Amino acid sequence: MRTSVKLILTALTASLLLSAAVSTASANNLSTSNQNIRATWASLEFAASRELVIRCQVTLEGSFHTRTITKTAGALIGAITKATVNQGACTGGTGSAFNGVERYNGTTSPNTLPWHIQYKSFAGTLPNISAINIALSRFRFGIRDSSSLCTGQYGTAEDSVTASAARELATGAITELTPVEGENSVHLSRRDGGLLCPSPSTMKGVGQVMLLGATTRITITLI
């Protein structure tokens, strides 16, 4: 009798472990509630040095290529198709997204869109993902500080800024999007004025992610 009970318990334990292993192993993808996204920063900081800090309201709009994202580092998962800087609200100088519309250094900026969105990694332990890290690349923007220390273009072909999308465990909602310290450097691609355009410089600030054209949060679930 004892042997039978022991065998049953052993079989049950093995079954549970196998089920958990299969579930974790099959969770190779992420699913988004919507492909179209909008990220906004009330104050995105560009800091080249203590003397050169510019803060602007920035909006990025774009989409994921599909609603299913494979957790493969470096995979191209989407694109930023619209980038705007509220130049009148900048402090410490002014910034310009190179979107073919905004003014930079007295002329209309070239259009460098679309910018790439790549999957990098996740934080937490499956299935409890606390954050998803994405990389933004192929961007270009210009800055001009109020002290005339620098008028320059930033963003090289090699630049890639990592941003962490914080995920609420209970709902899967993305609550914040923040450049990751140590992976938030941008490099000078061209100096157009002034005596000092430090390179690299860093980008900082907590942004909000919503469904494009609404105030609904994007949710991401493990599948």
Helix content: 10-25%
How would the global form be characterised? elongated
Distance between the termini: 42 Å
Order of helices and strands: HEEEEEEEEEEEEEEEEEEE
Main beta-sheet annotation: 10 strands, antiparallel
H/I helix tally = 1
How much is the radius of gyration in Å?
22 Å
Tally the structural domains. Answer: 1
Main structural class: mainly beta
Number of strands: 19
pLDDT average, as an integer?
Answer: 89
Strand content: over 45%
Poorly predicted runs: 5-26
Polypeptide structure, described:
- The chain has 223 residues and is mainly beta.
- The chain has one domain.
- Helix content is 11%, strand content 53%.
- The chain has one helix and 19 strands.
- The chain has one helix at residues 2-26, and strands spanning 29-32, 36-47, 53-64, 68-70, 76-91, 93-97, 103-104, 107-108, 115-125, 128-137, 141-145, 151-154, 160-167, 174-179, 185-186, 188-193, 201-204, 208-211, 220-222.
- A hairpin with a 2-residue loop joins strand 9 and strand 10.
- The longest helix has 25 residues, at 2-26.
- It is elongated, with a radius of gyration of 22 Å.
